[in-house]
Amino acid sequence: MTDLPRLIRSGLPHSDVGIVHVGLGAFFRAHGALYVAEAMEADGGDWGIVGVSLRSPGIRDRLSPQDFVYTAVELGPDGKHPRVVEVVRDVLVAPEDPEAVLRRMADPGVRIVSLTVTEKGYCHHPASGRLNREHPDIRHDVEHPKAPRSAPGFLVRALERRCGKRERPFTVLCCDNLPKNGPLVRGVILELAEMVSPELADWIAREVRFPATMVDRIVPAVTDEDVRRIADLTGRYDAAPVLHEPFRQWVVEDDFVDGARPTIERAGAQIVSDVEPFELMKLRCLNGAHSALAYLGFLAGHETIADAVADPVLADFVQHLWREEVIPTLQQPEDVDLAAYTKTLLERFANPAIRHRTSQIAMDGSQKLPQRILGPISDNLEADRSIDGLSLVVAAWMRYVGGVDEAGGPIEVSDPMAARLRQALDHASTGPAKVDALLGIADIFSPKLAEDRGFRTAVTAAYDRLTARGARRTVQDFAAR
Ligand code: CS2
Q1: Which backbone phi and psi does 257 adopt, to 5 degrees?
Q2: Which atom of ligand 1 is nearest to the CA of 27?
Q3: Closest residue by Cα to residue 471 from 307, 289, 292
Q4: In the predicted model, what is the mean pLDDT of residues 151-165?
Q5: What is the mean pLDDT of residues 465-478?
Q6: Residue 111 C-alpha to ligand 1 middle, in angstroms?
Q7: Residue 10: what pLDDT?
Q8: With bands split at pLDDT 50, 70 and 90, how would you rate the model's confidence at 5?
Q9: Among the listed ranges 77-81, 283-287, 322-326, which one has the minimum average pLDDT value?
Q10: Atom 1 (ligand 1): residue with closest C-alpha?
Q11: From CA 118, how far away is CA 364, in angstroms rounded?
């Protein structure tokens, strides 16, 4: 493989940067970056992207020798389709040089700072959406104006520089799977700015725009084996390729500072005035089902989502969830048929070429459960509808974070709240006590939900059944109720 030619760029300019993207992981490179690249192919414009890594230098080190060009490989039913993407101009590694990141964001040529830093990257309380002022990175960022660590810290300090120089601000474009992601990030940024300077907070509230977005494309993690296979496929060695399904969707609220944005609608993005119905549909139908299949599927011994939905017991269960407990909570977005939408989801999940691991989706459950599973539960309780299926998913998450699989082997629980979850569980000996202890974590479960008798009973009963019968048989029994 090493004697293969390495991927290099074809000589586009480096001087057309209009976007700084924080969190240049596989998802953005297989989604937003492609829309921007296609918009520039269609209409030109200065929208080259500088990526920022908030932690490790890994992606910079892999992309830099190939001049930030990479291969995106579509995994479709008719085979693999690679394409070369030339839209990233540089990658900055924040811990190595935070000043370089601030300088770049403060450059008036940058009109958009977009983010995919995952749910936990916003340093907020998942249950309320408010900034976690006690978060160690937030405390650090209030004290260190020149060397922030968190995404909100960089945004606030870069906006502070623009405000100080009386320049126009940039648009903050959140591309993470959070409910009302634009307003949520706006709230977090304003709270942090308020801690820094009330005048700055006023200016941000007045001048900065935070359009909400719904992003969708299934992008499994790339393994070393994938890298080898892609090199064989293309005849060129790429140290940082991405894999993705054929489907993609980007719904964006048309609310940018001075209207400045790439013409992503030319690449099929939907520019709308209200994203919320799309966002709720996607978070609850796709991501909710993903989490359900991740916890129940993992416990039932399925390695990937495709394996999980190939099991009729689990496939029937997610369809039941959608029909009875999720779709009734949604407002139908314009021109969308929700039953058809979920039918397509099942087909996307079943794509055997996508090896999307249940353990990958199971990560960070404390940050994902509120919008994916608990939101619909609260809505159903309010409207007197069933919550049994969704409560089983909550119980499966509880079993998963217990750290022991059904064969008695260890589960590696990756979650920013792992220590708190562990502590809660270690102090409880019986099943109901463990459920109680976890429901007591107010950062995940709002007090109103945690105190609901019907919810507590449903989760406790499901937890006991999972413990006694295992995940697969519990889901089977559920269908036979
Ligand atoms: C997944 C998402 O990892 C997860 O939690 O549910 O990454 C999902 O694949 C994307 O949101 C699809 O658009």
Answers
A1: -60, 125
A2: 7
A3: 292
A4: 98
A5: 98
A6: 27
A7: 66
A8: confident
A9: 77-81
A10: 361
A11: 9
Amino acid at 128: S
Where are the domains positioned within the chain? 17-272, 276-479
Residue nearest to atom 3 of ligand 1 (CA): 361
Query: Is the pLDDT score of 13 beyond 70?
Result: no
pLDDT on residue 221: 95
The position carrying tokens 């500072």 is 257
Other Cβ atoms closer than 10 A to 64:
14
CB-CB contact of 342 with 320 (8 Å): no
Q: Whose Cα sits closest to atom 8 in ligand 1?
A: 218
What are the angstrom distances between the C-alpha of 174 and each of 182, 190, 204, 209, 388?
6, 15, 16, 11, 33
The two tokens of residue 234 are 């293309």
Q: Which atom of ligand 1 is nearest to the CA of 290?
A: 6
Measured by CA distance, the residue closest to atom 4 of ligand 1 is 361
**Ligand 1, atom 11: closest residue by C-alpha:** 216
Alpha-carbon torsion angle 141, 142, 147, 151, nearest 10: 40
The residue to which tokens 């049994």 are assigned: 388
Residue owning the nearest CA to atom 13 of ligand 1? 216
- Measured in Å, residue 379 CA sits from the centre of ligand 1 at 22
pTM: 0.96
Tell me the pairing of strands 88-93 and 213-216: unpaired
Cα 158 to ligand 1 centroid, rounded to whole Å: 29
393-446 pLDDT, tens digit each: 999 999 999 999 999 999 999 999 999 999 999 999 999 999 999 999 999 999
> What pLDDT band is residue 77 in, cutting at 50, 70 and 90?
confident
Residue of minimum CA distance from atom 10 in ligand 1: 218
Pocket of ligand 1 (CB under 6 A): 177, 216-218, 286-287, 290, 360-361, 368
Find the 33 Cα to ligand 1 centroid distance in Å.
17
Tell me the CATH architecture of domain 17-272: 3-Layer(aba) Sandwich (3.40)
Interior angle at CA 364, CA 358 and CA 365, nearest 5: 75
Which atom from ligand 1 is nearest to the alpha carbon of 219? 9
The pLDDT tens digits of the residues spanning 246-281 come to 999 999 999 999 999 999 999 999 999 999 999 999
Fold for 276-479, please state it.
Answer: N-(1-d-carboxylethyl)-l-norvaline Dehydrogenase; domain 2 (1.10.1040)
What atom of ligand 1 comes closest to residue 217's alpha carbon?
A: 13
Inform me whether the pLDDT recorded for 211 exceeds 70. Answer: yes
In single-letter form, the type of residue at position 404 comes to V
Cα 245 to averaged position of ligand 1 atoms, centre (Å): 12
What is the mean pLDDT of the segment spanning 105-122?
98
Beta-carbon neighbour count of residue 337 at 10 Å?
11
HEC letters along 333-350: CCCCCHHHHHHHHHHHHH
DSSP state of 419: H
